[in-house]
Amino acid sequence: MAVAADAGALPSTSTADRQRIFVASQWQLTWWRFRKHRVAVASAIVVAGFYLVVPGADFLACSDPSASEAQRSLMPPQLIHWFDEGRLRPHVYGLKGARDPKTFKRVYQPDPSQKIPIRFFAQGFEYRFLGLFPMSRHLIGVDPGRDASTTIFLLGTDVQGRDLWSRLMYGTRISLTIGLLGVTMSLVLGVVLGGLSGFYGGILDTVIQRIIEILRSIPTIPLWMGLAAALPRDWTILQVYFAITIIISLLGWTELARVIRGRFLALREEDFVVSARLVGCSRMRTIFVHMVPSFMSHIIAATTLALPAMIISETALSFLGLGLRPPAISWGVLLQQAQNVQTVAISPWLMLPAVPVIVAVMAFNFLGDGLRDAADPYGR
After folding, report:
1. What pLDDT shows up at residue 45?
2. Could you give the percent of the chain with pLDDT greater than 90?
3. How distant, in Å, are the alpha carbons of 278, 285, 320, 326 from that of 173?
4. In what order do the strands lie in the sheet with 87-99?
5. For the whole model, what pTM was predicted?
């Protein structure tokens, strides 16, 4: 029936195409339907671009994200000028700072007489690509040997004078990997506990469902505050990173478990499940070999839709000071400096880390919608 429904949904009407459709697997049908969803395909490209930043954050950064200097505090973004005297010469104007006599704040103005050329694949600070290979090349940079006053700041600097572009690249790495690890752990918990609850029923089902109801009834923010306050202050960044991932995962598996339980309740009396048990398959083999693959496409779609919730959870925790803390770098940590309304009014570029959060969440949602529609064998 799924094949017949998909055959009606695909536009090809030739005999060869119909024959190809009728012998295609469910994964092939899902892929053909997904390709028709242009917004979802574009969102998949955006998501892939975000995750390419994860291994290449060091290469994309212009300068050391931890390097600070008081003299370049809150410098505005520098606009890239691609042409100079009719020739392709990408450069930025230098910035001249002066103290405002009324507000006593340092004000920067671009200096057209000082042109800082931008070099591609320039030499910069040393790092280890993928944690293994020592490198010092970066996508963009300035000529080696220049002083700190001629460093480029594509997105400006923060209060400590650190390059916001470089910190945004490193923050993307941490925020996206926390979401990926958190969804992976939630997926395991949701499939295992939801599958056991729906397959066995009885007391086990009652206990698991009551645990889910208790977790879903607790207000989210107070629960986050209590769990985050339990983290020791002397923990390293890596320890806090994994602790936040576990906290988010423990709160995010309940909805998927409910969905998996419902699917198991519908499938456990099907003929193929009964046949598997009659031929001697163990219960665990019946669950993970015969039942789970039958709705794997739905699990993938649900996982994709859960990723933006994980990213927002980490960003909100870090923004409120309950998650990752400096010197760790994430989108939420970068947005901590935007809590002060006066600072945002004077330095609006400090709100720029909110842009990748919005774009990533929207891309994941559109991608999840496309996968859900493509995985539905009865959709049109």
Report:
1. 94
2. 10
3. 49, 37, 20, 15
4. 81-84, 87-99, 106-117
5. 0.80
